[in-house]
Design brief:
- By secondary structure, the chain is of the alpha/beta class.
- It has a domain of about 260 residues: Alpha-Beta Complex (Amidase signature (AS) enzymes).
- Helices cover about 40% and strands about 10% of the residues.
- It contains 15 helices and 11 strands.
- An 8-stranded mixed beta sheet has the order 4-6-5-10-11-9-7-8, sandwiched between helices.
- Helix 2 packs antiparallel against helix 3.
- The termini are close together.
């Protein structure tokens, strides 16, 4: 491969510094990113929409402004409204949708100086933790293409891990930044609720459970991008208090002696894979060596009640989203335009009463208060990010029997909805077995990160999950940078790697 061969050795800030010093041009970086997409995307299917000419025009005329001026960037094809470029959300229902404006977060990404070279694959509406939409087909994990990069930001994670771009956008409503970061050996931070804007079209997604940010190879890139994007937008109904100082200043700062709780017991499921347990135990030893006080403890959660309430909340929002898509395009969304899991959740959402939704959200609010009280005595909680290593592609999809039941329940009566709920609960239980640690902290709104500290004997990444108090990203960035120095990961390249 010709071009700027050293491209993959730099993080985003490193590339931006080269541009500022005149050692490389934004055009050269964009051309290199394009070559890398063309070289490895046939194996990964991470990028599902290219923006090559748009990127080249931006690179040719872009002034040297913003922390990431001239750096190639990929957008997750969900939530990120980019004017005049399609947004499909992994769904046939949005196949022809082209937004006529940018979302506020996209505007801030643009202002940071990044140059969009394309958009990445995502499951339909980001509903499942694997990236296998029927519209575009599955994305493959660069550490082993037979395995999933997880989801829903799986396309972004695979592209960053394969050294196509140094960072890409993601969204996290139940672990969708942290899970693919874990599966692909990346750093992934979910910011606090209200830290980044969600306007102008929405005040919040999934009752505030969704937070958008980026997946990166370095800690400092994540911190610098959060500096560039955080803060309220016009009309925000709520927002996180401003940080005491820039997040970039926390990277390399002494975290002090932290009180860190840890657990290897599943919070929302029943089993944790030995590889994930081993990763936590190794990390506990490292934290103790670094001088932190580490104790075994975790918040207590009624997993079955939490999982049902969380599912009720999501189903109600998805039903509303699909209704609004119908209004947007001038015709209702048909069942044939939706995948089975989405179809089932829409049906459940349509059958959920207002009182049932209110009961679910009130319960989740109570859980949030109890969980956050746990952090009165602990600065950080450590768990595995996922309860299993990256699964084989296709292994998490509904079985044939489940698919047949969901597919046959389009006209529901009382018995039908009870049967549907039973099937959905079974499918959801598998999801919560995998996402056993992350969704809880979407509900509480606390910042949480996946740090690539462990690889199993098969060479698959196993991320470590750290949670801090609400709005305390500073502690996470300080700790992450300390761990990055003690156990570097940037030198690790997956078998499918551009350049």
């Amino acid at each position: 491969m010709s071009g700027f061969a050293e491209y993959g050795q730099y993080d985003a800030l490193g590339l931006a510094e080269l541009v500022r010093r005149g050692e490389v041009t934004a055009n050269e970086l964009v051309d290199e990113a394009i070559m890398r997409i063309e070289a490895v995307n046939p194996q990964l299917n991470a990028v599902i929409h290219t923006m090559y000419e748009h990127a080249r025009s931006l690179a040719a005329g872009r002034p040297a402004a913003g922390a990431f001026a001239g750096v190639p960037f990929l957008y997750k094809d969900l939530l990120a409204l980019y004017q005049d470029h399609p947004l499909r959300g992994g769904s046939r229902a949005l196949r022809d949708f082209v937004p006529d404006h940018d979302s506020e977060l996209v505007r801030r990404f643009k202002a940071s100086g990044v140059i969009a070279v394309g958009k990445t694959n995502t499951p339909e509406f980001g509903l499942v933790p694997y990236t296998e939409p029927e519209l575009f087909g599955p994305t493959h994990n660069p550490w082993n293409p037979a395995h999933s990069p997880s989801g829903s930001s799986g396309g972004s994670a695979a592209a960053v891990a394969a050294r196509i771009v140094p960072m890409a956008s993601g969204g996290d409503g139940g672990g969708s930044i942290r899970a693919p970061a874990s599966a692909c050996g990346l750093f992934g931070l979910k910011p606090s609720r209200g830290r980044n804007p969600s306007g102008p079209n929405m005040a919040e997604y999934w009752h505030g459970a969704v937070a958008e940010h980026v997946l990166t190879r370095s800690v400092r890139d994540s911190a610098a991008m959060l500096d560039a994007t955080c803060g309220p937008d016009t009309g925000a109904q709520y927002f996180a208090p401003a940080p005491l100082r820039p997040f970039s200043d926390e990277v390399g700062a002494d975290p002090g002696r932290l009180r860190i709780a840890y657990t290897t017991r599943s919070l929302l499921g029943k089993r944790v894979h030995p590889d994930c347990i081993k990763g936590v135990n190794v990390t506990v030893e490292l934290l103790a060596e670094l001088g932190h006080d580490v104790v075994e403890a975790s918040p207590s959660v009624d997993r079955e009640r939490f999982n049902r309430a969380y599912l009720t909340m999501i189903a109600s929002d998805i039903a509303a989203d699909i209704s609004e898509i119908g209004d947007l395009r001038g015709r209702a969304v048909g069942s044939h335009e939706l995948e089975l899991a989405t179809r089932a959740l829409r049906l459940l959402g349509q059958k959920t009463t207002a009182s049932q939704l209110n009961c679910a959200t009130r319960y989740l609010h109570r859980v949030s208060r109890r969980v956050q009280a746990f952090f009165s005595d602990h600065d950080v909680l450590l768990t595995p990010t996922l309860a299993e290593p990256p699964p084989l592609t296709g292994s998490a999809r509904p079985t044939r029997v489940e698919a047949a039941v969901i597919g046959g329940l389009s006209k529901l009566r009382a018995f039908g909805i009870m049967q549907l709920i039973g099937v959905i609960d079974t499918v959801a239980a598998r999801t919560f077995e995998f996402l056993a640690f992350t969704p809880l902290f979407n509900v509480t709104g606390q910042p949480a990160m996946s740090v690539p500290l462990h690889w199993n004997s098969s060479g698959l990444p196993i991320g470590m999950h750290f949670v801090a108090r609400y709005t305390d990203e500073a502690t996470l960035f300080r700790l992450a940078a300390q761990l990055e120095t003690a156990r570097p990961w940037a030198h690790r390249n997956p078998p499918v790697c551009a350049g």
